[in-house]
């Protein structure tokens, strides 16, 4: 980052807020893979103790991949917000992005429930369809139908709030933004003693599901994006940020209690996200914007929605639910689930998510004419799409 004096002496540079950020798309796949690994471990698919120990060591904190998604969502939506975009257009665009895939997986989950003769409460199904389930603290309700869709319920709350808060964020003084960057992780930390005020049966819901609580991560990303948009962000480069994240992950998985690692990982994720975005804006090397990783990141939303339903359905159908697979069969089955989920995600992205978003979403406001076209490598991330846009700007 340039100093204030250097920035004052240099000719005005175009605001980077409209630069493409393909590295963040690639990183989305890493977060989705962490969640997949966590679920594969908790389902005890691998019975061989040595193999299971490796999965547990690598993916024990994989649930925090959702934390990454929430921080990334706030960052990308503030970064990509354009002048003249109305609230209604923003809300319509977000619905068009996430609802088609959600609807398909909601119907698929109900079909699976019918196949296995599972009881389904109509009220719970309706809550899930409308993405209201994260507000319901009753055990089982917030994980109803397609269990992972609780995070979409949180995202809908974030989407509702952002257009209302964005004008305040744009006018906030730098000191206020930096105060929020420090305060939000501390608030995440404070949730753990605060949960003692909640009935014990609802504490998991309060700390892990409740949308206003999970919005702290969203706003952390949003505030960082505003600082970077103004050229005020000060953070480590991508290599240093990655080392910090890996060190934090290893330490958190081995020695740090959950009360602390949620906060530490939120900070580590933020450093990686901002460093990757800065690398793209400044045309610096980044391992996360290769074509394969960008594609994987583009289908990561569909992959996230489909993977648990695939694993649970196949394991129940085969009679292997909860028994685990001995020897090399366990890792082979996990790899098979990964491949099948990825194929289904690619189909969903190609034939549901992309065409319906193009049909249902309103056009975005034009970019300001003063902002030149970004570097070729960035624009290539959107190559092959009829509208020429990379999906990096979508939070999921």
UniProtKB/TrEMBL annotation:
<feature type="region of interest" description="Disordered">
    <location>
        <begin position="363"/>
        <end position="396"/>
    </location>
</feature>
<keyword id="KW-0012">Acyltransferase</keyword>
<keyword id="KW-0472">Membrane</keyword>
<keyword id="KW-0808">Transferase</keyword>
<dbReference type="Pfam" id="PF01757">
    <property type="entry name" value="Acyl_transf_3"/>
</dbReference>
<feature type="transmembrane region" description="Helical">
    <location>
        <begin position="237"/>
        <end position="256"/>
    </location>
</feature>
<feature type="transmembrane region" description="Helical">
    <location>
        <begin position="262"/>
        <end position="281"/>
    </location>
</feature>
<feature type="transmembrane region" description="Helical">
    <location>
        <begin position="332"/>
        <end position="352"/>
    </location>
</feature>
<feature type="transmembrane region" description="Helical">
    <location>
        <begin position="59"/>
        <end position="81"/>
    </location>
</feature>
<feature type="transmembrane region" description="Helical">
    <location>
        <begin position="102"/>
        <end position="121"/>
    </location>
</feature>
<feature type="domain" description="Acyltransferase 3">
    <location>
        <begin position="23"/>
        <end position="349"/>
    </location>
</feature>
<protein>
    <submittedName>
        <fullName>Acyltransferase</fullName>
        <ecNumber>2.3.-.-</ecNumber>
    </submittedName>
</protein>
<dbReference type="InterPro" id="IPR050879">
    <property type="entry name" value="Acyltransferase_3"/>
</dbReference>
<dbReference type="GO" id="GO:0016020">
    <property type="term" value="C:membrane"/>
</dbReference>
<feature type="transmembrane region" description="Helical">
    <location>
        <begin position="174"/>
        <end position="192"/>
    </location>
</feature>
<feature type="transmembrane region" description="Helical">
    <location>
        <begin position="141"/>
        <end position="162"/>
    </location>
</feature>
<keyword id="KW-0812">Transmembrane</keyword>
<feature type="transmembrane region" description="Helical">
    <location>
        <begin position="29"/>
        <end position="47"/>
    </location>
</feature>
<keyword id="KW-1133">Transmembrane helix</keyword>
<dbReference type="GO" id="GO:0000271">
    <property type="term" value="P:polysaccharide biosynthetic process"/>
</dbReference>
<feature type="transmembrane region" description="Helical">
    <location>
        <begin position="293"/>
        <end position="312"/>
    </location>
</feature>
<feature type="transmembrane region" description="Helical">
    <location>
        <begin position="204"/>
        <end position="225"/>
    </location>
</feature>
<dbReference type="GO" id="GO:0016747">
    <property type="term" value="F:acyltransferase activity, transferring groups other than amino-acyl groups"/>
</dbReference>
<dbReference type="InterPro" id="IPR002656">
    <property type="entry name" value="Acyl_transf_3_dom"/>
</dbReference>
């Amino acid at each position: 980052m340039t100093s204030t004096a250097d920035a004052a002496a240099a000719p005005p540079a175009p605001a980077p807020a409209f630069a493409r950020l393909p590295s963040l798309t690639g990183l989305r796949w890493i977060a989705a893979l962490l969640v997949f690994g966590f679920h594969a471990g908790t389902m005890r698919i691998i019975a061989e103790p040595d193999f299971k120990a490796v999965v547990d060591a690598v993916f024990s904190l994989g649930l925090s991949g959702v934390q990454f998604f929430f921080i990334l969502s706030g960052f990308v939506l503030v970064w990509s917000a354009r002048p003249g975009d109305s609230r209604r257009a923003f809300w319509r665009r977000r619905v068009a992005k996430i609802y088609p895939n959600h609807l398909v997986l909601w119907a698929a989950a109900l079909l699976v429930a019918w196949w296995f003769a599972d009881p389904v409460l109509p009220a719970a199904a309706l809550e899930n369809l409308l993405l209201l389930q994260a507000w319901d603290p009753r055990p089982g309700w917030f994980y109803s139908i397609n269990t992972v869709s609780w995070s979409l319920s949180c995202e809908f709350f974030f989407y509702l709030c952002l257009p209302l808060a964005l004008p305040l964020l744009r006018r906030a003084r730098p000191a206020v933004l930096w105060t929020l960057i420090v305060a939000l992780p501390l608030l995440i930390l404070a949730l753990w003693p605060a949960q003692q005020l909640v009935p014990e049966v609802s504490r998991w819901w309060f700390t892990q599901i409740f949308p206003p609580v999970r919005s702290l991560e969203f706003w952390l990303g949003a505030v960082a994006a505003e600082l970077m948009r103004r050229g005020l962000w000060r953070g480590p480069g991508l290599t240093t940020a990655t080392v910090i994240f890996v060190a934090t992950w290893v330490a958190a998985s081995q020695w740090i209690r959950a009360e602390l690692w949620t906060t530490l990982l939120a900070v580590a994720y933020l450093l990686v996200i901002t460093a990757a975005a800065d690398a793209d804006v400044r045309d610096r090397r980044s391992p996360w914007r290769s074509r394969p990783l960008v594609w994987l990141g583009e289908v990561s939303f569909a992959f996230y929605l489909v993977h648990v339903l695939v694993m649970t359905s196949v394991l129940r159908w085969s009679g292997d639910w909860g028994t685990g697979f001995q020897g090399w069969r366990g890792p082979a089955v996990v790899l098979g689930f990964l491949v099948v989920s990825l194929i289904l995600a690619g189909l969903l992205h190609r034939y549901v998510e992309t065409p319906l978003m193009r049909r249902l979403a309103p056009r975005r406001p034009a970019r300001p004419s003063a902002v030149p076209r970004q570097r070729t490598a960035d624009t290539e991330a959107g190559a092959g799409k009829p509208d020429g846009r990379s999906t990096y700007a979508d939070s999921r």
